[in-house]
Write a structure and sequence with these properties.
Blueprint (H helix, E strand, L loop, with lengths): L2 H9 L12 H19 L5 H25 L6 H26 L6 H30 L3 H22 L5
Helix pairs in contact: 1-4, 2-3, 2-4, 3-4, 3-6, 4-5, 5-6
Amino acid sequence: MSVLQNLIALLILKATPQDLPYSTQLTVKLIAAYVFSGIVVLQATVNPDDMIPGLLLGLIIQMAFTYVLLRALSHVERFLQTLCAILGIGILFNLIAWPVLAMLSDITASDTMKSYFSLMFLMIMSWEVLVKAHIYRHALEIKMFNALALSFSLFFISIALSQLFFPSSS
């Protein structure tokens, strides 16, 4: 299967991070694609001065969080594949959320329409937390409940640090 097919299978919980190739080159490409997709998706919703630093902060948080977890549980050899899975899923979710965020940032949209799209965005974010938990579950060889706790922790750490460093973006 191709990398894209594996990422789509991950998206529906039918693959694991170990299904991705162990490749520094792929990791670098996914980092670049992650930042690019973030720029494209967030350009209408985030303060332009905070966009690149915010994306880089999010990238560093995900990389560090994943590395620390893998190191703590003696699975550091899985770092590249796990990071590729996390970043690849992040790219797919950026693309899935793009039309929803565009509608939410549309000042001409009705309040009712924005309410529906806010709910849709919440569902997308919840799905992303679930998929990342699935990735951590397999990479760390832990129970799903623990993996969900880690995925939620990553989510809340990312929000807290983003608010700390970029308070005007809220």
